[in-house]
Amino acid sequence: MAFTAVAARGSAAEPFQLAGKEPIHHTPGAQDTHDRLFEYAGGHLGFYGFLRVANARISGRVMVGLMDLPDRLWRDAYDDGAHPGNAANEAITEAAEEMGVA
Questions:
Q1: pLDDT above 80: residue 102
Q2: Is residue 3 part of a domain?
Q3: Helix (H), strand (E) at residue 17
Q4: Which domain of life is it from (predicted)?
Q5: What domain range includes position 49?
Q6: Left, alpha or beta for 43 (phi > 0: left; psi -120 to 50: alpha)?
Q7: Is residue 81 part of a domain?
Q8: What sections of the chain are H helices per DSSP?
Q9: Number of domains making up the chain
Q10: Are 91 and 100 in contact, with CB atoms under 8 Å apart?
Q11: Does residue 61 form part of some domain?
Q12: pLDDT tens, 9-56?
């Protein structure tokens, strides 16, 4: 499946952005899930945006969020330049295998 290209991976102070989309900023208190992802990212805006995109993919496919799946090395995927959609698909596959439904 083709995903929207990543326009900017961001950094600790710069947000993640998909091509043709607005940069992904954090607004404290706007949504509990976003606050949890921001905390998980340690306040790193680029990694936070990556997690937001991955979380949207996961919740759209399996109706649970990224934080509901088994532990995964999300930061390694971000640092390795993985697309968040691909990382999300891998996480879903791994979770299904762990539960014996794949």
A1: no
A2: no
A3: strand 17-18
A4: Bacteria
A5: 27-99
A6: left
A7: yes
A8: 32-40, 45-62, 74-79, 84-99
A9: 1
A10: no
A11: yes
A12: 999 999 999 999 999 999 999 999 999 999 999 999 999 999 999 999
